[in-house]
Design brief:
Rossmann fold, alpha/beta, seven-stranded mixed beta sheet, binds S-adenosylmethionine, 7 strands
Length: about 160
């Protein structure tokens, strides 16, 4: 598969998954978490889907489109390895939706981060909440959820807390 096809599959699946999950978490309290701001495209989409919720954003450094920069009080800068373990105390409530999109061209580094991150998301996730991610993640007490229509199999990953 070309990198263009792979990119299109990923962003198409992102939109399909986030659109699918929005009504499923609508009745659940709590913030949304965005791990990996990047250009801010998925953050922009989350803001449209969740206009009244706090969306906490985790990122090394801001390099997003000017229209998609989170407010300072919801932006946690630094390496996930430092910020994620401290995040439950800062945020104060479990999240019904965690979106994690952190892959890069460095397959080894991305796989190592996925292996480290998955177990660390459990304390941040509400019971019955969902994790949508570009990488497969192992999160305790969650089950895999099939991708919604419009997402190519294997192009994204969904898990639901038990
Ligand atoms: C693929 S981009 C995210 C794209 C974004 N979802 C969008 O729609 O524009 C991945 C982002 O994750 C961030 N990232 C990757 N590993 C990280 C880490 N360990 N700590 C903080 N940020 C990280 C990178 O800096 C990068 O901006």
């Amino acid at each position: 598969m070309s990198r263009l096809d792979s990119f299109i599959n990923r962003v198409t699946a992102q939109r399909a998954c986030l659109n699918y999950l929005a009504p499923l978490v609508a009745a659940m309290p709590g913030p949304v978490l965005e791990l990996g701001l990047g250009n801010g495209r998925t953050y922009s989409h989350l803001r449209e889907l969740f206009p009244t919720r706090d969306i906490w954003v985790f990122e090394f450094e801001v390099a997003a489109h000017p229209d998609s920069i989170p407010p300072d009080h919801l932006l946690i800068l630094g390496d996930f390895r430092k910020t994620i373990p401290a995040a439950p105390a800062w945020i104060g409530a479990p999240a019904p939706l965690i979106h994690a999109d952190f892959g890069s061209g460095h397959a080894d580094k991305t796989a190592a981060m996925a292996a480290w991150l998955g177990p660390r998301l459990r304390p941040l996730l509400a019971r019955g909440g969902y994790v949508a991610s570009d990488q497969p993640l192992q999160v305790d007490d969650t089950e895999i959820v099939p991708l919604p229509p419009g997402a190519v199999a294997g192009s994204y990953n969904l898990r639901r807390s038990l």
